[in-house]
Design goal:
The chain is α/β, with parallel strands linked by helices. It is 43% helix and 15% strand. The strands form 4 sheets. The protein has a 7-stranded mixed β-sheet, sandwiched between helices. It has a 4-stranded antiparallel β-sheet with strand order 11-12-15-14, with no helix packed on it. A two-stranded parallel sheet has the order 1-13. A hairpin with a 7-residue loop joins β11 and β12. The longest helix has 25 residues.
Length: 394
């Protein structure tokens, strides 16, 4: 396998996304009120998919027919080989259901496994659709804050269990790896967390969409390896974050337990009637067959970009706190030592010229934090690092 350098990967796969109906690039003015901001917000990439994926999709387009389709056995072979090789998971075809996306699956899980007014718990700060899937569905949202020690986030297990008991929680939506703080949970942490859930008969929905993009030397432990908890477990994963396929509308709902599958299928009979995404199936199979080398190249870019921020901040603004990015392509940054939270938006947008995700979007207690998307050319990250540090010290 020949790995591309950071420069070579960016030269081959980086693309100008402006004027392509890109949410990230072309919706900046609507979202932030200014058009001339460098967009480092919504979690998608500025890189093309692997060449083999483009070829597979073009071949289907040239075929010219996009009617009702089934998922071929070759798809499951590629998907399960990826699971086995990367995560030591042995999955089965009967476990898998499909969804247009992980966010849609959040809503489906809430509706399928809880009733109105029942409680759903999440660990905060967390990706904001976790909140909306609960609050939009007339369920009770229970927030359990992670413990933050200078950017090192840990689970407060005692508080988590107490909140479950107090609110009679029925469902836990888990983020693994955790967005936005970048933690990859250890086997021991997952074991303790899931043990609490099983003790109190809480269903676990584990969102593993960021699992493929890991810091060098970090191992991801999938919930699907935890067979003792299958009777309380559903796992959500997708190629969309890894390979930038979000608008192909294709993700997996993996349900190892037959009883839980039957419950979900009963719900789906009434509420989930869409066909599978043909192009999503084709692209995903090609990604899992041919995408490992591309993913290695991408990971090198992500790590390189993270180190740009880390080194620039350490040299020029050492009181900035960056959480260690074990997983995902997102940097979680605490600017409270330099910028008052009430001034953060004007600082980032007016002074620095950036469009980013603000910490409060992930929970109100995160004032003064920002999330920066690293899946872009290093020049954009260098610009962000320079703008933030220069304006802090100006």
């Amino acid at each position: 396998m020949i790995l591309l350098s950071v420069d070579a990967f960016c030269k081959k796969y980086s693309v100008d996304r402006s004027q392509t109906s890109s949410l990230k690039w072309d919706n900046v003015a609507e979202r932030f009120g200014k058009a001339d901001l460098v967009p480092l917000w919504v979690a998608d990439m500025d890189f093309k998919v692997p060449e083999e994926v483009q070829v597979a999709m073009i071949e289907r387009i040239q075929h010219g027919i996009f009617g009702y389709s089934v998922v071929p056995d070759s798809y499951y072979e590629a998907y399960f080989a990826w699971e086995k090789e990367k995560y030591m998971v042995t999955a089965k075809k009967e476990w898998v259901r499909f969804s247009p996306g992980v966010v849609q699956s959040f809503y489906n899980m809430v509706h399928a496994f809880t009733k109105p007014k029942e409680a759903v718990i999440v660990l905060t700060p967390v990706y904001y659709p976790f909140f909306s899937a609960v609050s939009d569905s007339d369920r009770k949202l229970v927030r359990c804050a992670l413990k933050n020690d200078q950017g090192d986030y840990r689970i407060d297990f005692d508080t988590f269990e107490a909140a479950i008991i107090e609110n009679q929680v029925k469902l836990f939506i888990h983020c693994s790896p955790h967005n936005p703080v970048g933690r990859v949970w250890t086997k021991a942490e997952l074991e303790r967390l899931f043990k609490i859930c099983k003790k109190h008969n809480v269903m676990i929905v584990s969102d593993e969409i960021h699992r493929d993009i890991l810091q060098k030397g970090t191992d991801f432990y999938s919930a699907l390896r935890m067979e003792d908890y299958y009777d309380h477990l559903i796992v959500l994963n997708a190629p969309s974050k890894t390979f930038n396929l979000a608008c192909l509308l294709h993700s997996h709902i993996v349900i190892p337990d037959e009883k839980i599958r039957k419950q979900y299928d009963e719900y789906a009979k009434e509420y989930c009637k869409s066909e599978v995404s043909l192009m999503g199936i084709i692209a995903t199979e090609a990604c899992y067959r041919y995408g490992s080398e591309w993913l290695e190249g991408l990971s090198n870019v992500i790590d390189y970009n993270f180190h740009i921020l880390q080194q620039t901040f350490a040299q020029k603004a050492p009181l900035i706190i960056m959480s260690e990015k074990q997983g995902s392509y997102l940097a979680w940054i605490d600017l409270n030592a330099y910028v008052e939270p009430k001034n953060l938006e004007s600082f980032i947008q007016e002074k620095c010229g950036l469009a980013i995700d603000f910490g409060e979007w992930f929970g109100k207690q995160n004032k003064g934090f920002i999330r920066i998307n690293l899946a872009t050319k290093p020049e954009n990250i260098e610009f962000a690092a320079t703008q933030i540090t220069q304006n802090i010290t100006a």
